[in-house]
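Input/output pair, single chain:
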Amino acid sequence: MRELHFKDYFWNGELTCTGGYDCIVQHLNDGKRTCKEIEDFMKARASIEEKYAKELLGLSKKVCGHNEMNTLKRSLDMFKLQTEHVSLSHLQLAQTMRDEAKKLEDFRERQKETRKKVEQQMDALHKQRAMQFKKTMETKKTYEQKCRDKEEAEQNMNRNASTSNVKQQEKLLTKTQQAKQNAEEADRLYMHNVSVLGKTREDWQKEHIKACEVFEKQEVERINTLRNMVWTHLNQLSQQCVTSDELHEEVRKSLEQCDIQEDIEHFVNLRRTGDKPPAPVLYENFYSGQRVPAGPPSSRTAPPITRRGPLPNPDNTEGDVIYSTVDPGYSALQY
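Output:
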């Protein structure tokens, strides 16, 4: 299948028309705008990555499991460390994206300078061609008018050849010769301008072909650059995922070494306070030295009742102290 090229399909039927050329230039302007949009996209994505990386880095510095110990502590420390590494990898990714955006900006500027030179040259040729075409059309108009004047003079002289005197005939002949001379001069000028216009047209046509080739080459480079840049961008994002997963894998490996029973035993050995529980609190009767366990009875039968006999009579005879007595039927336990 035959390949299509700019130089073959952007001509116009009218010599002064620039529709095909303008169509190509408009397409290149749209392509330049696309380059700028992709460049801005890369910069914005880099800013997002940088912001995320900084927030993630700050998060990795926060206290997390400070009071933990042994294998779990090591796993949490590894978790924080790898979170920091992930944040640093995102910072690096942000810088890489900025570098790619700078490359695209430089590429866009180079194409802009190349296009500027070609467009300036083509604009000059378009103006020259338009001016020469206008000049040629004016000389053509003059030439046609001079030819009509010549024919009119000849016809007038022929009509008055038999009726006018010699002096009038000489006057008509002089006028006819002058008209003929003017027509010939207009003819030479018209032919000269047509020749100049033909040369101008050839020069413009050659430069138009060259410009189309330059513009097509730029378009090929632009499409290839944008395609490769987006492809590279996606590869960078995929590599970031791989890097993050490798860092996360280190945390998973550390978690695999986290032994629950070992951590329990480590805590017991490090902080244990004793291996015997406290003794039960015994009941102590206020009136007796006998102690009754304070715990619940071992059976459902009531404990034996201990009764106390009468208190001895006081020896104090002073009479200023009153001693109370307990009724013999008093019980220390009530049910």
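Helices lie at 6-9, 19-60, 70-159, 166-256, 260-271. Residues 39 and 103 are 9 Å apart (CA to CA).
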